[in-house]
Amino acid sequence: MAALLRSARLLKFTPSGLLQITGTKRNGLPLSRLYSGTLGIRRTGVCSRHIGPAVENAPSRLSPYTVGCVRNYAVAREQKDEASSGVQSKQAQQFDSALSKLDNSVRRTGRITKTMLLRVFHDICRTGYPSGNQALLLLRSCGSLLPEVPPVDRTELAHHIWTKLQELGSQYDVSHYNAILKVYLQNEFKFSPTDFLAKMEAANILPNRVTYQRLIAAYCQNGDIEGASTILGFMKSKDLPITEAVFNALVTGHARAGDIDSSKNILTVMRNAGIEPGADTYVSLLTAFAEKGDIDGVKKALEEAENADCSLMDRDIMQVIFALAKAGHQQYVPEMVERLRHERSYIPDAMNLCLSLITHGQEDVAFQVLKNFPTLQMDNASAESYNLGNFFLRHCVNMNTALDKVANYCRDLQQSNLHTSPFNFTLLCALEAKNIGLSCGLMKQMKEQNLPVRPHFFWPLLIQLVKDNNTTGVVELVKTMEELGVAIDTPTLSNYILPAFGSLEEARQALKVTHASFLTRWQMKCIPKTNAVCVCLCPHPERGGYFLYSLIDSMTEAEVQVQKDKLREYFKQLQALNITIPVNIYRGIRNLLDSYNVPELIKDVAELIDPKDKASAELSMTETLENKLAELKAENKSIDLTLKQIIQALCAEENLQRALELKQQHEEHMTAGGYAILINHCCRNDNAEEALNLKREMSRKDSSVALDASKYIALMKVFANKAVDILKEMKEKDVMLNDTHTTMLFHALSSAAAKGGPTIIRRLQDTVFALGLAKPSANLCSPLITAYLDSNDLSGALDAALECQKRYNHLPRIHDILVGLVQQGDTELLQKAMDVVSQERGEMTMLYDLFFAFLQTGRYREARKIIETPGLRARPGRLHWYAEKCIAHNQMETLEHMVDMTAKLFECDRDEMYSYMLRLCKETNNWKKADALWTKMQEENIIPRERTLRLLADILRSNGQEVPFEVPEVNLKEKNMHEVTLCIYFVLAIFDVSVEAYEMVKGADEKGLVFGPASYDHLIRALLAEGSMDDAMALKDIAGSHIPGFKMSDTATNLLIVTQSKKDLVTDAVQTLKSMLQVNHVPSQLAITRLVQALGRKGDVSGIEDVQKLMKGLSTPLNFSSMLFINNIALAHIKNDDLDSAVELLETLYTNPDNHSASMSFVFRKILENGNDKVLDKFSVMAERLANHFACYRPASDLFLQLLDMDKVEDAKFMLAVSVYTLLYLIMCPQLGKIQSLLSLIPDFAEEDVVYSYLIKCHAAEALMEQMQKEGVEVDELSLKRLAVLYRKEGQTVPFPEPPVSRTKEKKNLENAHLNSAALSSQSDSKD
């Protein structure tokens, strides 16, 4: 290969570094401190659209795939040595954060700094295990992403990185050689293409199409058409495609060879070859004219591009501006600047252009571009706080721009009100750069501008001079201070000047000063570090069964089917760890696996059953239950529950006939639950007649009983003609629908759409929304549109969709409607639809909808025009949706066109786009297409994520192909993490170590592992439950970065409100509540209670009232205590020292007889906890006044009980005007000492049996029995039952027959006791 190319005319130079040029002359000054900045992506004629004519470091449009080229891809290669692998993994994790910083910098500004790049490089070197992907990342960063660095320095840095990483064992493949070629082209580095090929041949690396394209660009960059033609002929002989990138390079080559006519003719050659010149081609031609200073040719080329319907962006015009300035034709720059349209990405692109121009000595042109920034259109009022051009001034300082120029720029900015203090900022930059000459010059300029110059301005310079032991420099700087009239104060003299001299006398002689001074000494105090203590928490094996059930229950049927083998392996691992599960848990898991249609896993779960329970597990559930039923019936006991369980088990076994037989035999024992199970089973098997009979039979037995929502929806699907009546019955019986039921309702409506027409669906849809059974959504509205589309009525579908938008603010199936309209060519209806979408959803949404419609119908030319609309940004969620749609329907051509068209889209993640295509290649086993995609990714200069490389490698390996790159490997722990991390952190969350779980998920995120939204939400809830709000919000951001549109669940949002309230972040909590209500979600009672209490603690009365108003507007009212808001408003008044308002509020409440039972215990408890006697006295008087004047004893009772609860018995004696509410104290506080205190205060308490029923809860059984017998208290069955429990707990024999009291009867007895006590107390009150 190299021999073939050596036959061509060799360039008159030899390689440097990698291909060393001897005696290379540096054309730039040494770099001082670097700061952010780049727009210098030069066009090299190599990559489609990304590359154009090769001007020296000419800035190009900051294409989205270049913006995204720096990514977090550091995972150490797995070595055979286990210890070495562990070190690599740990070091690679530490390196990930540095790579993230690079990525963030590129995404935000389109550039990186040399300092940042070197830091990452040194981190890699310290690890000692550089991966191929890390090397690729660093090499590609040495080009136009460093606009603040001169090209020659960038190339030297690339050579240094290449050599160092190779020494450390990095394996290079063709992608690395292509990357260094790209750097050479971007940096205008002269090298010999033939020698480059020879080095590749020596390294046994075969060049590919990208290599040849870039070598052609290298020849053309130097005007060597002959050399380019040699490689071009070789490409043709190898049947390699000649792409637009090659033609673009030839446009540049002919122009630099002095043949501009041939450059123009290349466009004709392209058309004859079937390639339509694109934007890159026209930019190459524009740059060729600009280098020649042919402004008329530039204008003509712009007109041709416009006539060819080729949209040129601001970045393209900036390329022309750079070429004009670099070639010395600055007089034409203003005309080009006027053509800039200030698109969305203008600011970062223009900043990068300015930085590149300054780096190449074109500061004046850069300043013209700076003054054209759109943000300059502002009024004088806001200009005071606005500083434009900081980056410009800083880079001028770093490039050692002449003082006069810098001073003129500062004056211009200040006079134009574009910068409030340009001289001060520039001086700061000069001081940071330790540039003494420029700093002193700027201070002189400031003095002339009557700006203050203070002693501390000189401190950074003095520090550096003292550090360098430069006493002469210190003396000269002191003279400068005297010339500027800056008085040398004591800190400056003692801390920054005198340390430069050996003694005070030497300083006096050098500075000729006579006043005394002093020297200070500093001592460093070393604080010993403490060792951290790690606490390892071991999960409890006995909880394994519950975890296992929860894990399987949280998975969908599809997930279980896919993860079947992994679950089996997991079960075996649990068995190896001797983890067992109870038989009841086994049965639950067995039912789940049955419902998921994976019975083959049941035997694996059965191995985990506790051996002592295994015998009972071997019996089938129905057999066990039927035996139990017979036993209960023989003992004349209730069989209702057991009968229901048998029916449920039989239906699970699809044995409907036996279930109906049992129902017939025991009809008098059938419950509503049993009927519901049978009805649901009949509906699922389309047994409509039997379902209807069961429904009628159940209604005859009890007309008030209601089925749950799922059963009603199942009936709807079976009885479409009676669906409206079923919906009305649901409303009458207050049947509520949750999210799962809403999904079921959607399927029911869709089923009805397939059976009936739009009229039926519209009636059902209107009924559902009118009755308030479900809130309108795009999903529930879509069956109506489906009905129209199935009947090919596009006009009706559009009208129905627009009606849904008008009534419910949803546009269901708009994509399918647009696709149909485009296919029919109905421009009138299409325009109507686009107008509505644009008006309701915004122009960008409309453009994406139209783009996807054109793609779907194969109108690729129209789709390209849409996606190249100036100012359009990438919307990852929309692109992801359509890509998944293409993958699901195996639409490779459509997906490929979308990936190609979005190459120029601002902020488009190119790696993500190519990963979609690779996924489809894997599903279709198309390795040739995958291999071609790898070449295209190199053309676009994309650095793939490790997951993308692994996917591509997997495709190639599975087809027996050689992988042309180093595959990033991970150790066994990392491989397993993707499969089991969900289980691990779920266990951690269960055992209250959510923070450790969060750290694990963070580690997984750094390695590129992504989980589902439910997984993230579960851990967010666990973190919030522990109060770790910052970690929870960070995890939410992680989830949002992977899952477009990620939202926390209602439970998580409620927990967030609770956490914010506990931390007294009431403003944030209220905002969270409002955002929750805006999306029609209902907050929990606990969240509102904690929020209102927090507002009360803050004294925010208006905030409480606002929350109260929000709660009144809820469609689903919450069961709040009537006193929640009143009590906390009173506490807020107390907090604000407004006791009169608090008392007035409560007295107004209690003077109304309807409110005599309202409790204010919460207020009294808070007052007593705060120990505020003044407030307590005020409210005690109020309670006494309400009792004496209005016969309202509740406040007095509340105060009495709170005093008693806090062991203030003496104070409680003064509040003995108690009422029936004393019984509440017994219920709420079953503590022996406090109940006895109550009895001591009220010795003649009437309900002794009630008192003793509560004493049983907190007393020794034998002593209490003796006391009750001594006092002759009659013991009811409930108390006897409790006494029996106490005896057994104490290990004693029960000395009396234990009555069989059920839980229902126990509850009823308790309620009766409460009612009897209330009646007695009421009678007592009336007598008084």
Labels describing this entry:
single chain; 1328 residues; mainly alpha; 65% helix; globular; disordered N terminus
> So how many helices?
73
Please tell me what the overall shape is. globular
The computed structural class is mainly alpha
Mean pLDDT comes to 76
Q: Strand tally, please?
A: 0
Radius of gyration: 40 Å
Helical fraction:
55-70%
Q: How far is it from the N-terminal to the C-terminal residue, by CA?
A: 116 Å
Q: Kindly estimate the percentage of residues that lie in beta strands according to DSSP.
A: under 5%
Low-confidence stretches: 1-92, 376-385, 513-540, 971-982, 1217-1232, 1301-1328
Q: In this structure, how is the largest beta sheet organized?
A: none
How does this model look, in words?
The protein is mainly alpha-helical and 1328 residues long. The chain contains 73 helices and no strands. The chain is 65% helix and 0% strand. It is globular, with a radius of gyration of 40 Å.
Helix/strand layout:
Elements: H1 2-6, H2 64-67, H3 82-109, H4 114-127, H5 132-140, H6 151-167, H7 174-186, H8 193-202, H9 209-221, H10 225-237, H11 244-256, H12 260-272, H13 279-292, H14 295-307, H15 314-326, H16 333-337, H17 346-359, H18 363-371, H19 380-383, H20 390-398, H21 403-415, H22 422-432, H23 436-448, H24 459-467, H25 471-483, H26 490-497, H27 504-511, H28 544-554, H29 557-562, H30 564-576, H31 583-595, H32 602-606, H33 614-618, H34 621-634, H35 640-652, H36 656-665, H37 672-684, H38 688-701, H39 709-718, H40 723-732, H41 739-755, H42 758-771, H43 778-790, H44 794-808, H45 814-824, H46 827-841, H47 843-856, H48 860-867, H49 876-888, H50 892-901, H51 910-924, H52 927-939, H53 946-958, H54 972-990, H55 994-1006, H56 1013-1025, H57 1029-1042, H58 1050-1062, H59 1066-1078, H60 1085-1098, H61 1101-1112, H62 1124-1135, H63 1139-1150, H64 1161-1170, H65 1173-1190, H66 1194-1205, H67 1209-1212, H68 1222-1228, H69 1232-1241, H70 1248-1255, H71 1261-1271, H72 1277-1289, H73 1303-1327
Helix pairs in contact: 3-4, 5-6, 5-7, 6-7, 7-9, 9-10, 9-11, 11-12, 11-13, 12-13, 13-14, 13-15, 15-17, 17-18, 17-20, 20-22, 22-23, 24-25, 28-31, 34-35, 35-36, 35-37, 36-37, 37-38, 37-39, 39-40, 39-41, 40-42, 41-42, 41-43, 42-43, 43-44, 44-45, 44-46, 45-47, 46-47, 47-48, 49-50, 49-51, 50-51, ...
